[in-house]
Amino acid sequence: MAQLSYVSGSVGLITLQNPPVNVLSAATRQGIMESMKKALNDPKVKSVVICGQNGVFCAGADIKEFGPNISGPSIVPLIYDIEVANKPVVAAIEGSALGGGLELALTCHYRIAHSKTRLGLPEVTLGLLPGAGGTQLLPRLIGIPASLELITTGRHITAAEALQLGLVDHVTQSDTVDSAVKFALSVEGEPLDSRRISKRPCPHLPDLDAVFEAVMQKVRQKFYGAIAPIACVQAVRAAATLPFSEGMKREQQLMSTLFTSGQARALQYSFFAQRAVGRWSMPSGASWNTSKARPVHRAAVLGLGTMGRGITVALAQAGVSVVAVEIQEKQLNEAREHVYATLERGAQQSGVSPSCANITYSHDIQAVADVDLVIEAVLEDLSLKEKVFQQLSAICKPGTLLCSNTSSLDLNCLASQTKNPELVVGMHFFAPAHVMKLLEVVYGSKSSPEAVATAMQLGKKMGKISVAVGNCRGFVGNRMLKPYIEQSYFLLEEGATPELVDKALEEFGFPMGVFRMSDLSGLDVGWRVRKEDGLAEPVGTSGQITRLRGGRRYSPLGDILCEHGRFGQKTGLGWYQYGRPGGRVAKSDPWVFNLLEEYRARLGLTARPIDQQEVLERCLYSLINEGLCILEEGFASSPEDIDVIYVFGYGWPKHRGGPMFYASMVGLATVLERLDHYYRSNPDVPSLKPCKLLRQLVASGSPPVHKWKEITKKIQNRL
Ligand SMILES: CCCCCCCC/C=C\C=C\CC(=O)SCCNC(=O)CCNC(=O)[C@H](O)C(C)(C)COP(=O)(O)OP(=O)(O)OC[C@H]1O[C@@H](n2cnc3c(N)ncnc32)[C@H](O)[C@@H]1OP(=O)(O)O
């Protein structure tokens, strides 16, 4: 796992050999320790270079090993041994130097990096802090403000930025190991004391208290409820105020609290879940490793409203050449300007040149004739989309993949309008499409595995986390949102206020509660769908309100708001008031309180006190229950799929893993008991009825999430 060889006569070259990314597993740590000892004891060796096999330095500790019993040598003493070495040790950094990998490099006396390397301390994203001296060494090397920023965000930086910060000594464009060996030869015999970072004082910061206070406030706001960023700030403060050895003790104390926390488990689960969703499968048995994606060199986006513009930007930024089509001339011109400005802004932020040259605009649908893939993003209207798919099927060259950005319509209906339904898949982006990481790739009953593989690969190229899901109403994300929103309306009927419900959900960790979120996305969208479904009927100011519709309880509260022209932020009024159309700051609205009182009086409902616990249980457990139904019915292939969708598309707090992981942390038996309880008192609300899979999981002893698949499969085989 780490190999010592001898080069250029006097250099001991230690190569980490743990593919694919040379993580510091027990065997690797052992290997480094033994190789180091051998090199230092060998009189022929005058300097040491540490590098990683296959162009990757080291991606840090092996996250899979984290748990109560870590075997093998501990990282911290190993790293100390390197720093105190009496021969110069040079890190030859290429690929990635992350977490424990960067800490390993920090204890070397010199750091040479290839220009394409990414460096960082991403432990905070795993619910941890850089616990192998990173919080004490980095501030001594690059100063407190820069260290705080890197450690609390976990951001990966380029070699150029690392050089500018003083994190590396030299950046090379040629062979990194060769450069490091040459460098090691040049410093043999030189004194090392000034190269030992632990011996340096932390650079003085005059307004220390103010800096730490400001950063603490920022992380509390930005990462609401997350404990790791706070511990990171506390650890860096120790570097600024304590001698190195004391600071190390503080780092270890903070690390051990984080290490066993539920948040760390959730975030580490999420790390692997993000990678697991790439290994998709379909109920037919087709999967990522049996299906080949087609290359997409040229894509078209049809319909340049908000979604189409975002998709155009994301494709261009991914280096795909785009034909952007909008039939209305005015909208086309506006879109062109908007896309240009967004690309310019993005380029300024990232420092790379904008990709505007990749885009051609047209108001003629014939312009899509020779593209490899089309993403349709016209209005969410079934008959319009059906017509568009008929046209696309006639115009496009044979084999062109036809994708729809629909968020709610039946993909099979669209596919049935084409000559080749196997070439039709859903690509459900989330607004703003060039920013949001999630992409639901929806397969219909006839979608070919090749079409799914192509959409998944294109999503990856666009920097998205793509999840393959089946074609049920609302797909996975929006389907689960329905019972969650429904419960929030019922809670209002029973005595809650939008403020109370939102507060409970925001304290849980959502960036916005359900009512603020609905105001942002527009209340009229759901209203239109409910009207199409025959659910929303005019309520008026007098007369009977029917609460039972389609055999289940229905709350018309959202419809009433829409009847009053309250569509949310865009009209300045919704569940809250915003001062003006397009206003962003939500303020309580007495009109809503009056409405709720009058509504309850009309229905003979008595308001009762509702606490935050009930809000969370009813909103979250009904959403979780729907997710379990989706798994049971096979529309998602694993709980990880659902969790990734919720974390990256719906603001589920990252440090809670996702709804399925959260349910397992709360205890499936508890979720089942509470759903049973609420369903007993609300038998006309089917979404509270615990699904078969939940009962089965509890009956099987509530196995951890990664074992649910076995039980899901059994239920599906029986269906
Ligand atoms: C009681 C208290 C005691 C506490 C004592 C603890 C002592 C603590 C001392 C030190 C602690 C150090 C903490 C850390 O170092 S935590 C790890 C920090 N590192 C990271 O977060 C890096 C994570 N990896 C990545 O960002 C990427 O994988 C990257 C390296 C950029 C490569 O990206 P890419 O090329 O896209 O490849 P993949 O992401 O698909 O990864 C390839 C496979 O490798 C697996 N992988 C990657 N990193 C790790 C890791 N650190 N541990 C385990 N496995 C890792 C990844 O899952 C992929 O596997 P698979 O193909 O099976 O999906």
TrEMBL record:
Pathway: Lipid metabolism; fatty acid beta-oxidation. It comes from the Eukaryota. This is Peroxisomal bifunctional enzyme. Its EC number is 1.1.1.35, 4.2.1.17, 5.3.3.8. Its main location: other. GO terms for biological process: fatty acid beta-oxidation. Keywords: Fatty acid metabolism, Isomerase, Lipid metabolism, Lyase, Multifunctional enzyme, NAD, Oxidoreductase, Peroxisome. In the N-terminal section; belongs to the enoyl-CoA hydratase/isomerase family. Residues 474-578, 615-705 form the 3-hydroxyacyl-CoA dehydrogenase C-terminal domain. InterPro entries: 3-OHacyl-CoA_DH_CS (IPR006180), 3-OHacyl-CoA_DH_NAD-bd (IPR006176), 3HC_DH_C (IPR006108), 6-PGluconate_DH-like_C_sf (IPR008927), ClpP/crotonase-like_dom_sf (IPR029045), Enoyl-CoA_hyd/isom_CS (IPR018376), Enoyl-CoA_hydra/iso (IPR001753), NAD(P)-bd_dom_sf (IPR036291). SUPFAM superfamilies: 6-phosphogluconate dehydrogenase C-terminal domain-like, ClpP/crotonase, NAD(P)-binding Rossmann-fold domains. It catalyses: (3E,5Z)-tetradecadienoyl-CoA = (2E,5Z)-tetradecadienoyl-CoA; (3S)-hydroxyhexadecanedioyl-CoA + NAD(+) = 3-oxohexadecanedioyl-CoA + NADH + H(+); (3Z)-hexenoyl-CoA = (2E)-hexenoyl-CoA; (3E)-hexenoyl-CoA = (2E)-hexenoyl-CoA. It holds the Pfam family ECH_1. One of its GO terms (cellular component) is peroxisome. One of its GO terms (molecular function) is enoyl-CoA hydratase activity. It is found in: Peroxisome. Monomer. Residues 299-471 form the 3-hydroxyacyl-CoA dehydrogenase NAD binding domain.
